[in-house]
Amino acid sequence: MPLRFPRRMRSCAALRLTFVCVLLVLSFAEGKAQDTVTGAFEGIVSDSQTGLPLKGATVEIINQQTGVTFNIRTDFRGSFFQGLLLP
């Protein structure tokens, strides 16, 4: 014999399920709105005559609109990377 719940309990469960679904939809919509667009620069600094990578070279990245400057140094391979830059 199957269990039968009173109508009041069934409608309460349906209301809870609806509430949970609405919360899930809102949480995904809010998370999507918080995405931030950023850019990055990466490269290799090398000697123009020999082509060898330059370890410890200073790279300066300047945002011309805001004046924000990033100074970074190349690694042992002459590589540099700067992320999270505003477009």
Characterise the protein shown here.
Helices cover 31% and strands 26% of the residues. It has a two-stranded antiparallel sheet with strand order 1-4. The protein has a two-stranded antiparallel ribbon with strand order 2-3. With 87 residues, the chain is of the alpha+beta class. The chain starts with 6 loop residues before the first helix and ends with a strand. The protein has two domains: 1-35; 39-85, no CATH class. It has one helix and four strands; from the N terminus they run αββββ.
List keywords for this structure.
87 residues, alpha+beta, two-stranded antiparallel sheet, 4 strands
Write the layout of secondary structure elements.
Elements: H1 7-33, E1 39-44, E2 58-62, E3 69-73, E4 79-85
Antiparallel strand pairs: 1-4, 2-3
Compute the gyration radius: what is it? 28 Å
Number of domains: 2
The percent range for helix content is 25-40%
Strands of the widest sheet, in order across it, are 1-4
Low-confidence spans: pLDDT under 50, at least 5 residues?
none
Any idea what the shape is? elongated
Provide a count of the helices: 1
The SSE order reads HEEEE
Largest sheet: 2 strands, antiparallel
Question: What value does the average pLDDT take?
Answer: 80
Assess the beta-strand content as a share of residues.
25-35%
How many strand elements?
4
Give the CA-CA distance, first to last residue.
66 Å
Query: Structural class, from helix and strand content?
Result: alpha+beta
